[in-house]
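S., here's the first fold you wanted:
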Amino acid sequence: MATNEAAAPAAAPAASGDRPALTTEYLVGNWAEENCAEPDVRLAADGSTDGGRWSLRGNQLVRTTSEGEDPPLDIEVVDADHFRVSFAGLPPQTMQRCS
């Protein structure tokens, strides 16, 4: 017997194993490519960052400054303290969370 119920929309993929989901909460903090003594970027919970504002759109980090929107960065979560960032076809760089 057929029903008239619409199919539920597909849920976002769940994080697996030790890899958390990519959320704004995950990205909040100080991040560095190599040396946490001098973090490369600070992403604040209020959406501010060095010289502008940041937001998450899907798997892309977008930074906006007084000059406009920077090209988006593709983000891939590695684990709770590391993510890979890639831009315009360049090789990805791994960022680490700094305390």
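And the second, which I think is the more interesting of the pair:
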Amino acid sequence: MRRSICAKALGIREPHQLRYGRVLRSIVLKCKTGGDDTLQRYVGTQSIGPFPLYNPVRSTAVTIRGMVREDFPKPEAGVEYR
């Protein structure tokens, strides 16, 4: 992304897009100051705040066997499942 004049004036380092799902588009801005409300008043801003970053968790489960088709049978006609 290009660094805009606004970003330069606010002391924001190079913005970059955070890949977080297919439909959510988040831009990461690392600012020198947090008290400026110029970004909050910008018409394109939907939300400003800390954004949690999640990391994958490694499972400690042990695989006993692979799945087989019989583990998930097709639904039976006329049966109401709850």
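Why I say that: The chain has a mean pLDDT of 77. The helical segments are 5-9, 38-41.

Talk tomorrow,
H.
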